[in-house]
Amino acid sequence: MFSFKGLSQNEVEASRRRHGSNQITPQEVETFWGKLGDNFRDPMIVILVIALIVVTVLAVFGFTEWYEGVGIAVAVVLATFVATVSEFKNEQTFQKLQEEASKIAINVFRDGSLRVVGIDDVVTGDIVLLQPGDKIPADGKIIRGKAKVNQAALTGEPEAVTKTPGDTDELNLDNPHAVYRGTIVEDGEAALEVQVVGDNTHLGKLAEALQTDERIGPLRVKLAKLADDIAMFGYIGASFIAVAFMFKAIYLDNGGDTAAMLAYVSHWQQLVYDIATALILAVIIIVVAVPEGLPMMIAIVLAQNMRKLLKSNVLVRQLMGVETSGSLNLLFSDKTGTITRGQLEAVGFMTAAGPGNAVRVNHYKSFEEMPPELARLLDISLRENTSCVVNCETENEAERILGGNTTERALLKFVRADISACIEEGAEMVSQVLFNSARKFSATRIRLNGGEITLIKGAPEILLERCSHHYTDDGSIGPLPEEEKPLISEEIDKKAEDGFRLIGVATKTDPTPNQMEELPEDLTLLGFALIRDDVREESKPAIETLQSAGIHVVMLTGDRSGTAKAIARDVGLLNGDRKLAIKSADMAKLSDEELRKMLPDLNVVSRCLPQDKTRLVKVAQEAGLVVGMTGDGVNDSPALSNADIGFGLGSGTEVAKEASDIVVLDDNIQSITNAVHYGRTIYRAIQKFITFQLTVNVSAIAIAFLGPFLGFKLPLTMIQLLWINLIMDTLAALAFSGEPPLAKHMREKPKAREEHLITGGMWSSILCNGMFMTLVCIAFLKLEPVRGLFHSEAAFMTAFFGVFVFLNNFNKFNVRVEEFNLFGHILENRGFLRVVGMIFVIQVLITYFGGEMFRTVPLLPVEWLYILGISIVIIPFDLCRKYICWIFE
């Protein structure tokens, strides 16, 4: 256990003034104007700009009106500007949340004790405690201890290198005494003296080059494929519409008379104008059909949910994580801190006692109840064989025991290390072997009172097997015959089945090697600490919610089988038929095929090793499952990286967090449930947007294609179509992006990897409503009684424009819910109501003030009632469609 005076507060301030801050200058991100420029280079916008140039040239020669070019220009600028504002705002929000929630806490010696400070507060001259899983906060040299450091972040080499104390004037990556910011401590414990901070560190100089690319999730891959398919549909539809327009101009308008058609063709100015109009109309149809709002939609809906998720203690590091969580169907969850509270408390100590061979088991509920000599031995064992640093005199209770893990901190509190000094002073550490999940023990050899003793703690069954003696109540040493060990083992099993975690404590006076990978023989047993970790109240309901959502939950733990089963029963993981619990050693004997067959019934893996986690992920993915994995340790990073969704735990190591897609800040399984819920909500919101958009596509393209054959050159003008495109893409994305998470989403089955984004129900809505709106529009255009409702031909065409917009705006209510109640939970997405209301208001304003540009004239109040009455029929029609679908389900 290290101890340094460290810098005083005045020395810290002086160092910061002289050498600068440890904060690395943030990388330059794309500015608003840069993003706006990129959006203007979008292929669809480029096509529109070309169309704008063509229209402008035609206007100069008198073939078209000036306002058509202005209308296209306004549409281009407005659509691009709104999209850019939304994307930029949400990206800024995401980056800010990442920076705020990803701050690293560092253990630093200052003013004679160990303190916790933020990484940006580290200064040159600080002495930092480094332990497994820590991310090194600055460049410097090792002055005490030894550590294996993974420098892959700087060198790309995966093998850890050993760092030892030594003086160095030159910091280079091959130096065995120097360590660097951003690298990870994999094993060992050391003290670092900081020499270089901030932008002057190796990482600071390479920060821009080391920027990692965001992984693209399966949802966005599906969306990109869908966008390409829709675009192809738009290109084909636009071509047919251009041909249909020219067919009307050349053949139908001339009654099929050859002479008239030749005369039309010879009038080249009119021919050029009509060809240009046909081409521009085709371009506008492409713009309407191509879903340029899809990328913006997912950016908006993901970013909008970032803050909501953070309130639920979920930090999204990779957007892919929350995308994929909606498809999760298998979750491997840690026990400690995730299903249990993670607030470990040592509540007793169990010893082997008795004269001679008549061994019995004694139970002590507190440290004070123990015999003085046993208490002294336990105090030394737990204080000296630990990775924690004890500051029992500090006023800040949270800083009295720092470093180490939760188990070690619980053991130190049992011997009152947080409030009293060590009973036996003057111990000097000779060597130390830190705990890891493979060796399952830690050992420290100390020099005390002129002699040496090795202090060992670890898994109880391993220690008991290697013990040949035990301490009696008076501190003397007695034999521990092999035939008496089953009695002790039985007591261990009973406590484990009651839900306790047990830690064995033993000693050895004979010399031991400095680096032990296996326990030596002939240990002397001191006893077993009983540690309680209560189950979270919310764990059982959260697991039930996940199970009802079709997600299979498997608990992984390093605890004994009895402890694991007890906790699993409490949270409902082992209740019912065909529920299996398996030990790591037994799982190792199974082939991958045997393990794959066992997965549907597997619920608990005890004594789980990091390599077991990686294997489970691989086997589950080969079975076609979408796998989530939780992890907090250094060795968990391969499993977290390989899983479809890696859930790092907030209390875990930095390397585990960096390997994850989502960080669960409170370690709670309920927070994982929330992440899944939001993932499904996002998936649903995108499906609603697609349904609405494709419905508009079907009706707009059908009307534009059929219009010329019905005697209308342009039922909807180019500028009107651009306004409809704005409604369909940008504003619809904003309307559907705020849909709330509903309880019913967690009663649905997970989405399969190969499942199409557009379901049968969506196709029913798209085709039925799209064709119905087309029929309504055709009837409106062709029925004389309808024409007679309006005071002029201009008012009639204005009303047709209004009917088409209102039909689609009312259809948003149909698309928003699958049920019959169109107003269900509508107040939970007030943005939807604002967007729908805004479209109605703007359409009215366009009608009165659009003039020739939008081909509109003011309408009488009664004419607005006709428009509302005709357009609202889409709602009862869709309710009938839903009812018919419900009958045939």
Automatic annotation (TrEMBL):
<feature type="transmembrane region" description="Helical">
    <location>
        <begin position="716"/>
        <end position="736"/>
    </location>
</feature>
<keyword id="KW-0460">Magnesium</keyword>
<dbReference type="GO" id="GO:0046872">
    <property type="term" value="F:metal ion binding"/>
</dbReference>
<dbReference type="InterPro" id="IPR008250">
    <property type="entry name" value="ATPase_P-typ_transduc_dom_A_sf"/>
</dbReference>
<dbReference type="InterPro" id="IPR044492">
    <property type="entry name" value="P_typ_ATPase_HD_dom"/>
</dbReference>
<feature type="transmembrane region" description="Helical">
    <location>
        <begin position="230"/>
        <end position="251"/>
    </location>
</feature>
<dbReference type="GO" id="GO:0005524">
    <property type="term" value="F:ATP binding"/>
</dbReference>
<dbReference type="InterPro" id="IPR004014">
    <property type="entry name" value="ATPase_P-typ_cation-transptr_N"/>
</dbReference>
<feature type="transmembrane region" description="Helical">
    <location>
        <begin position="831"/>
        <end position="851"/>
    </location>
</feature>
<feature type="transmembrane region" description="Helical">
    <location>
        <begin position="45"/>
        <end position="63"/>
    </location>
</feature>
<protein>
    <recommendedName>
        <fullName>P-type Ca(2+) transporter</fullName>
        <ecNumber>7.2.2.10</ecNumber>
    </recommendedName>
</protein>
<dbReference type="Pfam" id="PF13246">
    <property type="entry name" value="Cation_ATPase"/>
</dbReference>
<keyword id="KW-0406">Ion transport</keyword>
<feature type="region of interest" description="Disordered">
    <location>
        <begin position="1"/>
        <end position="22"/>
    </location>
</feature>
<keyword id="KW-0109">Calcium transport</keyword>
<feature type="transmembrane region" description="Helical">
    <location>
        <begin position="271"/>
        <end position="303"/>
    </location>
</feature>
<feature type="transmembrane region" description="Helical">
    <location>
        <begin position="757"/>
        <end position="783"/>
    </location>
</feature>
<feature type="domain" description="Cation-transporting P-type ATPase N-terminal">
    <location>
        <begin position="5"/>
        <end position="60"/>
    </location>
</feature>
<dbReference type="GO" id="GO:0005388">
    <property type="term" value="F:P-type calcium transporter activity"/>
</dbReference>
<keyword id="KW-0106">Calcium</keyword>
<keyword id="KW-0813">Transport</keyword>
<dbReference type="InterPro" id="IPR018303">
    <property type="entry name" value="ATPase_P-typ_P_site"/>
</dbReference>
<dbReference type="InterPro" id="IPR001757">
    <property type="entry name" value="P_typ_ATPase"/>
</dbReference>
<dbReference type="GO" id="GO:0005886">
    <property type="term" value="C:plasma membrane"/>
</dbReference>
<keyword id="KW-0067">ATP-binding</keyword>
<dbReference type="InterPro" id="IPR006408">
    <property type="entry name" value="P-type_ATPase_IIB"/>
</dbReference>
<feature type="compositionally biased region" description="Polar residues">
    <location>
        <begin position="1"/>
        <end position="12"/>
    </location>
</feature>
<feature type="transmembrane region" description="Helical">
    <location>
        <begin position="69"/>
        <end position="88"/>
    </location>
</feature>
<keyword id="KW-1133">Transmembrane helix</keyword>
<feature type="transmembrane region" description="Helical">
    <location>
        <begin position="863"/>
        <end position="880"/>
    </location>
</feature>
<keyword id="KW-0547">Nucleotide-binding</keyword>
<dbReference type="Pfam" id="PF00689">
    <property type="entry name" value="Cation_ATPase_C"/>
</dbReference>
<dbReference type="InterPro" id="IPR006068">
    <property type="entry name" value="ATPase_P-typ_cation-transptr_C"/>
</dbReference>
<keyword id="KW-0472">Membrane</keyword>
<dbReference type="Pfam" id="PF00122">
    <property type="entry name" value="E1-E2_ATPase"/>
</dbReference>
<dbReference type="InterPro" id="IPR023214">
    <property type="entry name" value="HAD_sf"/>
</dbReference>
<dbReference type="GO" id="GO:0016887">
    <property type="term" value="F:ATP hydrolysis activity"/>
</dbReference>
<dbReference type="InterPro" id="IPR023298">
    <property type="entry name" value="ATPase_P-typ_TM_dom_sf"/>
</dbReference>
<dbReference type="InterPro" id="IPR036412">
    <property type="entry name" value="HAD-like_sf"/>
</dbReference>
<dbReference type="InterPro" id="IPR023299">
    <property type="entry name" value="ATPase_P-typ_cyto_dom_N"/>
</dbReference>
<dbReference type="InterPro" id="IPR059000">
    <property type="entry name" value="ATPase_P-type_domA"/>
</dbReference>
<keyword id="KW-1278">Translocase</keyword>
